[in-house]
Amino acid sequence: MRKSFRTGGIALAVFCTMPAFAQNNSKLTSASPSQLELEKKFDGLIEAKHIGENIKLFSAKPHAIGSAQGKLVAEQILEQFKSYGWDAKIETYHVLFPTPKVRVLELTAPTTYKALLREPVLKEDGTSGQEGQLPTYNAWSADGDVTAELVYVNFGLPQDYEQLEKLGVDVKGKIVIARYGRSWRGIKPKIAQEHGAIGCIIYADPREDGFFQGETYPKGPYKSEFGVQRGSVMDIVKYPGDPLTPGTASTENAQRLDRLNAPNLLKIPVLPISAHDAKPLLEALAGPVPPQDWRGAFPFTYHVGPGKAKVHLKVAFNWDIKPAYNVIATLKGSLYPDQWVIRGNHHDAWVNGAADPVSGLASLLEEAKAIGVLKKAGHDFKRTLVYCAWDGEEPGLLGSTEWVEDHQAELQQKTVAYINTDGNGRGFLEAGGSHALEGLVGDIAKQVTDPQTKVSVWERSKADAIATSASAKTKKELLAREGFKLSALGSGSDYSTFLQHAGIPVLNLAFGGEDVAGEYHSIYDSYDLFIRFKDPGFAYGVTLSQVAGRSAIRLADAELLPFDFRKLQKTISGYVTDLTTALEQERENTQVENQLVNSGIYVLAADPNEKQALPKAKDEVPYIDFSPVQNALASLDKAANRLADTLAKAGTTPAINKALYQAEQQLLTTQGLPRRDWYKHTIYAPGFYTGYGVKTLPGIREAIEQRNWKEAAEQIDIAAGAINKLTAYLNNILP
């Protein structure tokens, strides 16, 4: 699944819009001198050479979930953990995983073309011709054999269908072709299906991912015309994990839904294709010329269709139950064995997966090695460390979701935090997660050195934010700021079930921004490409180990766990301000648009012969009362400040620490989000039409976006209730 914060719909970590808080250097977030000395020793044990050796080892062959090589990789990881002194085991789940047996795509009119549906072997890429590669496909497409007119739907987003309606184009009964970008891939066929399409094709346009951006592989890192992005199109915004066991673990004898009744699986066939295969399809289209921002980089005029262009799409799958091998390694804590710090990265890949996920996995294993050395040298970590290598992440967070659902009650009692990584590259620190841990990440980021610039990774990320800001005023504000801001998390990696279903605090960490993801989910995600274009010398693999590993061992040893709920309160307050501002803007826009519609003023199509649907007036935006959530946040502000002041002066106990790490669970709602009750968190969720991309205060925000004003008011009350519950909880931590 998509990992990069910059390209996967999750906002880049930016810097606090408020001045630095005094607690940044207080007992709440800072480490003791002895802890800092331990962390320096830890840093010195991280070896770039060994990280590179593991990337080469684990990406040597294709190792998808359910394959013999996938099992071997899990066993190799297990043996490494054991050699480092960890108590390790494999926990196996039995999950549905489709693999293709038929893939056909043909242009049947006005000319004919049969799609290649394969990526060529390259002499510059030593693993590109191996056996065992999964072919180019979208997991969780429905079986289907359809022939119909073709319609180009741009990125396949809701607003694109609104534009099609204005052009007089209906996709009902048609096959649509959408380009990758601006949303997670699974959203594209989902929206197409909702509009009555009978099939969906997804391609990478060279404008976003190919020669328009730079030199293509193997000469450069961008996607070649033959490269294809495999990937899941499961509707994970309803629930991730095995589609047949929502909310319960896929053990060997688990009760399972009928596949055709699984709520998060599509009913239409879907197929990803290369730019090479997309070109003749798009070139054959007639119909209206789309707006300028719909036009990609092919050297012809783009048209929407439909018309004479017809395609035949046929796909069929083996729908098999496959074993998913989660590797779980434990180092028992000396003082608080029932308080767990969990660290994870998946090990399965669509093909070889050198960048995704092996680069992150290699950093995780290097941390485990260093921690083992510290343990053997006599350091006893106070809390239990649990290091996990997940299987089945790529098809839909299968391994981690089933494990959390299997152990949920125990995890909610014992887990201090879950720290996730998922692939890595060269560039800037990208960090997201639970905002009460913001101070912890900021403190560590100031102590880890960027290998390229030799300043701290915090300073380098701050410099990037300044360099890419739009105005002199913003640059000046950024220069004066000291606080680090975590981004909010949507979905796309293994933190999702921990945070959004179980209410466990999480961090998601990576480096990136100076690498290119042209190899993403293709046969070219290889060791050969990685050492040329992703992280030559594995320097940022070392840096990721240092940031993630320091986070883990600091949480494991902290006398007082570094949860600061003032940061959370300020963050949620910012989300409410965003919502009220957006609502007022929508009210003004609606008034202006309705005035134009009622006056009969509208823009005609450039071609008078083209169809055009006349605009319609919208319902006016009513007054929405945000006072319940605003009042709740005012109370939370007082409680969070009182708690922070008291903890900064007082001692701590295991009971207080447990209360701190369980506080996030107060933000869960038993009824879950509307139309997707698996998601319980009232503050963070993947967007219903963004997938990986986060929606903050999702119940409220999506109700407003869908202009469901009654539901918006209901969700305001629900969010306010969760915040009030957290306030009461914090007030009860200390007398």
Characteristics:
Glucose Oxidase, domain 1; about 35% helix; Aminopeptidase; Transcription Elongation Factor S-II, Chain A; two-stranded parallel ribbon; alpha/beta; about 725 residues; twelve-stranded mixed β-sheet
Helix content: 25-40%
What's the alpha carbon Rg, rounded to whole Å? Answer: 25 Å
The CATH superfamily of the largest domain is: Zn peptidases
* Average pLDDT figure: 93
* Overall 3D shape: globular
Give the secondary structure arrangement, pairings included:
Blueprint: H1 33-44, H2 48-58, H3 68-83, E1 87-109, E2 113-114, E3 138-139, E4 144-152, H4 158-166, E5 175-179, H5 187-194, E6 199-203, E7 231-232, E8 270-273, H6 275-283, E9 310-331, E10 336-346, H7 354-376, E11 383-390, H8 393-396, H9 398-414, E12 415-420, E13 427-433, H10 438-445, H11 457-467, H12 472-480, H13 495-501, E14 506-513, H14 527-534, H15 539-557, H16 565-599, H17 627-649, H18 654-661, E15 684-686, E16 694-696, H19 698-705, H20 709-733
Parallel strand pairs: 3-7, 4-5, 5-6, 6-8, 10-11, 10-12, 12-14
Antiparallel strand pairs: 1-2, 1-9, 4-9, 9-11, 13-14, 15-16
